[in-house]
Amino acid sequence: MNKYVIGIFAHPDDAAFGPSGTLHMAAQSGSEVHLICATCGDAGMNVDQVENLADVREAEEKRASELIGVTSLELFRLSDGELCNNKYIEIADRVVAHIESLLEGANEVTLITFDTNGLSGHVDHIVMSLAATYAYLKLRESHPDVTFQLKYFCLSDQVMKTANTNWIYGPKGRSSTEIDETIDVSSVRERKLEIMHAHHTQRSDARAIISLSGDKLLEENFYYYKD
Questions:
Q1: What are 9's strand-pairing partners?
Q2: Mean pLDDT, all residues of the chain
Q3: Would you say residue 111 has pLDDT above 90?
Q4: How confident is the model over 139-162, as pLDDT tens digits?
Q5: 3-state DSSP: the chain helix, strand, coil percent, rounded to 5?
Q6: Which pLDDT score is estimated for 121?
Q7: Whole-number Å distance between alpha carbons of 60 and 68
Q8: How many CB atoms lie within 10 A of CB 96?
Q9: Is residue 196 a contact partner of residue 17, using CB atoms and an 8 Å limit?
Q10: Helices marked H in 69-162
């Protein structure tokens, strides 16, 4: 049984700051783990004033991916913060085409992306979540011999207790009735932290997420696409 797990995200640190424990555990269990990252993160924090933030963040993503144990990392190198409706169809088609190139021999494929609300409200996140959903539906139709599942990584309302405007509108977390699966990643705690800290340029975000999540950092929550 050939199992593939494919993460579809907008920014170089999204997998690391999101479901990296789940992705690492999948790799450890023998699944092929592949990542798609749409942007080069050039609009991220640059407190160290590095000359070419996009190149540095790409290197950080490659290091984090090695720590996760991925089989492949695909970088679209689109501009950070500029994913939008005009680019959505092109992006979605690129996601489909890339996954198509990976599917030979696959029996089970799980796609993982961010919550359709974007988690933090970031529009780039929302675009890639929608692109992942489009890809799931297209691939499921064109490959009836493969079992597909789509999981949306989400925050619980125990972590994000209320909507906030600390940056832009950040939605309240999902209730227990909305969450379909909670994965305990405490067994890979140190590796998850190492993966997060691989994104050194974005270390203030990493610290904020660790502080906000507390013990819940070691619980990764998902809801499933349902017809």
A1: 37
A2: 96
A3: yes
A4: 999 999 999 999 999 999 999 999
A5: 45, 20, 35
A6: 87
A7: 12
A8: 18
A9: yes
A10: 85-102, 123-142
The structure tokens listed for 215 are: 């013990």
- Burial of 84 from C-beta contacts in 10 A (0-12 / 13-18 / 19+): exposed
pLDDT band at 167 (very low <50, low <70, confident <90, very high): confident
Q: What are phi and psi of 76, to 5 degrees?
A: -80, -25
pTM: 0.97
Beginning with the edge strand found earlier in the chain, give each strand of the sheet holding 147-154 in spatial order: 72-78, 32-39, 3-9, 108-114, 147-154, 219-224, 181-184
Chain position carrying tokens 């977390």: 173
The continuous run of DSSP H or E covering 207 comes out as helix 203-213
Torsion of CA 20, 24, 25, 28, to 10 degrees: 180
Phi/psi at 54 (nearest 5 deg)? -60, -45
Q: Is the dihedral of CA 203, 31, 40, 132 positive or negative?
A: negative
What is the percent of the chain with per-residue pLDDT over 70, rounded to a whole number?
Answer: 100
**Could you tell me the two tokens for 79?**
């501009």
Strand pairing category for 108-114 and 3-9 = parallel
Helix (H) or strand (E) holding 28: helix 20-28
What is the token pair recorded at 104?
């030979």
pLDDT at position 166, please? 83
Query: Does residue 61 register a pLDDT over 80?
Result: yes
Bridge pairing between strands 219-224 and 181-184: antiparallel
